[in-house]
Design brief:
The chain has about 800 residues and is α/β, with parallel strands linked by helices. It contains 33 helices and 25 strands. Strands 1, 4, 7, 8, 11, 12, 13, 14, 18 and 19 form a 10-stranded mixed β-sheet that branches. A 6-stranded parallel β-sheet has the order 22-21-20-23-24-25, sandwiched between helices. A 3-stranded antiparallel β-sheet has the order 15-17-16. β21, α23 and β22 form a beta-alpha-beta unit. The termini are close together. The structure holds 1-deoxy-2-O-phosphono-alpha-D-gluco-hept-2-ulopyranose (H2P).
């Protein structure tokens, strides 16, 4: 471990001290007095008070990292789904209780204030949220780290429903600024895109290719401090905003053309304008590539500057710098680093490439072919002409190695090539990432196994040992401590604190799983959380739900492979059973969905419409006596998840086996005492290992069964014909019964199921439906359910992102903590 720096705070952490600090911010930063301050003012002033403590530690941390010339990890990600930072900052600053008291004395509370904050929604789903959990763990484990990404002006779209259809609205989260970020104009940096490659004489008289004539863009960094929990370390997330290098063209302005004068500026600023939704459409491809290059190019320049402050020799670069690529989105960094060394610093190819391949590590998050990024060669030629040349050279050398290993093996060369041949040549970014990184990891054991066996078997053979697994995790600070104060308090009362930094401690709860008193306390917490959620549901969408019912939750991106429509088929089957047998004895259920569909993804949008229409119908049907309710909460986001997760009884994790790389919602829900109904997919497999078979409901086909069925030729129509109930509910969807005002609008979903069904929904229906009967029986047995729920919470220790990050640090990055 490196030497530690001294840290003493200049700020008074007592309740009176914090009260004064908040009031000072109200007055001097916001020009308000206590009489006229709005709730937002109080939230801002309290946030700024917390931020002062955090910043003090951030300065100390950065000094310590600099003084010890520590190795740092740089987490490159196009997405950081941070959510709200208020509660997290208070907990991490170690002043949550004091602030709560200080606010109380002024007639306020944290619960009301935190709602004033706009979610920082700079991500689509699991991948972006994982990055946010990782930042939290890195700081908590005292690991020197910087997150790098884009300062999007608009986050993921806001979702509304109109007549059950998704409508997308802009997410202008920055309109009134945020108290958490600090602009760093002094670290602005210039990069270029487009242009051409010319041969010129370098300063040693060599005639060499140079990238010239491109469009210049200025990157301006904004820093968000990332405080660790229970430690002084504060790392930061640095997000780049794009600007025009010159404010605007004065010459054009003087000629009278204001529009012309600011046009240049607008083009440059477009780059950091919007986060791309996880979309399948072709539109905006060029801009997306420019975004990717822009942020990695800025970040690498920033890393160079920091490295050069404390180091002389470039050979030492991998000793001081590890760069983790969060999916292939930042993979162009591999080529840019090579270009900087080789073209700009005149380093020989072999040496430059050797440093590059000791610096990068790549995380793969998906096996779905449509999600593996490819850029066409003509597009590359236009946006990054020199990089394209370098990619061809990297590929040439790579294929020479393939040839050396497997002489004459054309097939191997074709599958291993970074360039995909075809009508239009494509650059395979995943291949580039594998070739340019020293480590490639999957995000759950099963995923990594499939990564090696199915997606990259030839690469695994070529680079033995390069592939490894790092099962995902979630931060217990946000996903238990902050989101579920009732359960956190109960846990700490029972087994003491310390679990927030060592989640395995929750095992201490196991011994109380059969204790009737503890069971009733545990379930009382769940009930109170359900009452809260019921209130939110009522205010948001006007539906009354019974908190005693089973809350059955599916919250995640809307995607065909995640199979929200399988859930819907089961809801319809239950509804039909109740209509045909009104005395059917089932525990009342509330089905809760929340999800955004990518704007260009028609089938996903159709599934939303179907759930909403079926829900409206069922919720209004008096005959079933409130035994079923279907709720779709609009605008799914981190802060909403934080309200749903603590209130869930059942967690739906029903992707087709082999398709969900890991899942992290499964971990959040189980940690908060929800039981999982799920397929043997992603991290569900490991959750089952941890909680035990008796505490989880597993259903559906295994990966092997899926593979066998697809190989044999899957015909959904056969399953449809063979199962009367299934046929009835599928036909029901397609029949206009639920959408009389919009005939035909669910036809696409129905036809897709019967004639296409690429994710085998119909094949898994019966098993899923049977499994739900077991859920129903278990829920009616209150002590049994309570025991199972407690066991889930108690056995989630493995899924702390602290465990995950600990493994990345020791096994991939070789990174030591620095105590501040
Ligand atoms: C993805 C995968 C998840 C995985 C997550 C983080 C891309 O997230 O599909 O299985 O857990 O990355 O590794 P998501 O589907 O939630 O957007």
């Amino acid at each position: 471990m490196s030497e530690s720096a001294q840290f003493t705070s200049a700020i008074d952490h007592s309740v009176p001290g914090l009260k004064k600090l908040i009031k000072n911010h109200l007055k001097f930063s916001l020009a308000r007095d206590t009489q006229t301050a709005s709730r937002r003012d109080w939230w801002l002033a309290t946030s700024k008070a917390a931020q002062s403590l955090i910043i003090e530690r951030m300065i100390a941390t950065q000094t310590a990292h600099h003084r010890t010339n520590a190795k740092r990890v740089y987490y490159f990600s196009l997405e950081f789904l941070m959510g709200r930072l208020f509660s997290n900052s208070l907990y991490s600053a170690g002043i949550f209780d004091e602030i709560e008291l200080a606010l109380q004395e002024m007639g306020l509370d944290t619960e009301t204030l935190r709602k004033e904050e706009y979610d920082m929604a700079l991500g689509n789903g699991g991948l972006g949220r994982l990055a946010a959990c990782f930042l939290d763990s890195l700081a908590t484990l005292d690991l020197p780290a910087v997150g790098y990404g884009i300062h999007y002006q608009y986050g993921l779209f806001k979702q509304e429903f109109r007549n059950g259809h998704q409508v997308e609205l802009p997410d202008a989260w920055l309109t009134y600024g945020t108290p958490w970020e600090i602009v760093r104009p002094e670290h602005s940096t210039e990069v270029q895109v487009f242009g051409q490659v010319e041969n010129v004489f370098d300063d040693r008289g060599n005639y060499v290719p140079r990238w010239t004539g491109g469009k210049k863009i200025l990157g301006v960094p904004y820093d968000i401090p990332i405080p660790g929990f229970g430690t002084n370390t504060v790392n930061f997330l640095r997000l780049w905003e794009s600007r025009a290098p010159e404010e605007f063209d004065f010459e054009a302005f003087n000629r009278g053309g204001y529009g012309e004068a600011v046009r240049e500026k607008n083009v440059s600023e477009t780059i950091s304008k919007v986060l791309y939704p996880n979309d399948k459409t072709e539109s905006g491809k060029e801009l997306r590539l420019v975004q990717q290059y822009f942020f990695v190019a800025c970040s690498l320049r920033d890393i160079f500057r920091r490295f050069r402050k404390d180091n002389e020799a470039w050979e030492d670069f991998p000793e001081k710098v590890a760069i983790q690529l969060n999916d292939t989105h930042p993979a162009i960094a591999i080529v840019e680093l090579l270009r900087l060394f080789h073209d700009e610093y005149g380093m020989a190819w072999e040496k430059a490439w050797s440093i590059v391949t000791k610096t990068f590590a790549y995380t793969n998050h998906t096996l779905l072919p449509e999600a593996l990024e490819k850029w066409s060669v003509p597009l590359f030629q236009k946006v990054l002409p020199r990089h394209l040349q370098l990619i061809f050279e990297i590929n040439k050398r790579h294929l020479e190695q393939v040839e050396a290993k497997w002489p004459g093996d054309v097939h191997r060369k074709r599958v291993l090539s970074i360039i995909e041949e075809g009508h239009v040549q494509m650059v395979r970014m995943a291949h580039l990432s594998v070739v340019g990184s020293f480590s490639v990891n999957g995000v759950a054991a099963l995923h990594t196994q499939l990564l090696k066996a199915e997606l990259f078997p030839e690469f695994d053979e070529m680079f033995p040992g390069k592939f490894n697994n790092k099962t995902n995790g979630i931060t217990p600070r946000r996903w238990l401590l902050a989101c579920n104060p009732r359960l956190s308090t109960l846990i700490s009362k029972k087994i003491g604190t310390g679990w927030e930094r060592d989640l395995d401690k929750l095992r201490g709860l196991e011994q109380y799983a059969n204790d009737p008193d503890f069971q009733s306390e545990f379930m009382a917490v769940k009930h109170a959380n359900k009452v809260d959620l019921a209130r939110i549901i009522k205010t948001q969408i006007g539906i009354s739900v019974n908190p005693a019912a089973l809350f059955d939750v599916q919250i995640k991106r809307l995607h065909e492979y995640k199979r929200q429509h399988l859930n819907l088929l089961h809801i319809l089957a239950l509804y039909r059973r109740l209509l045909q047998n009104p005395d059917l004895d089932i525990a009342p259920r509330v089905f809760i969905f929340s999800a955004k569909a990518a704007p260009g993804y028609d089938l996903a949008k159709c599934i939303i419409k179907a759930i909403n229409s079926v829900g409206t119908h069922i919720n209004a049907d008096k005959r079933i006596n409130d035994r079923l309710k279907v709720v779709f909460l609009p605008n799914y986001r981190v802060s909403l998840a934080q309200r749903i997760v603590p209130a869930a009884d059942l967690s739906e994790q029903i992707s087709t086996a082999g398709k969900e790389a890991s899942g992290t919602g499964n971990m959040k829900l189980a940690l908060n005492g929800a039981l999982t109904i799920g397929t043997l997919d992603g991290a569900n497999v490991e959750i089952r290992e941890e909680v035990g078979e008796e505490n989880i409901f597993i259903c559906g086909m295994t990966v092997e069964e899926v593979t066998a069925l697809v190989k044999k030729g899957y015909r959904p129509h056969d399953f449809y014909m063979a199962n009367e109930e299934l046929r009835a509910v599928v036909d029901w969807i397609g029949s206009n019964y639920f959408t009389p005002d919009e005939p035909g609008c669910l036809r696409m979903l129905c036809d897709n199921l019967i004639y296409n069904d690429p994710f085998l929904v119909l094949a898994d229906f019966q098993s899923y439906s049977d499994s739900h009967k077991l859920v129903d029986a278990a829920f009616k047995d209150k002590p049994r359910w309570a025991k199972m729920a407690i066991m889930n919470t108690a056995r989630m220790g493995k899924f702390s992102s602290d465990r995950t990050i600990g493994q990345y640090a020791s096994e991939i990055w070789k990174l030591d903590p620095v105590k501040v």
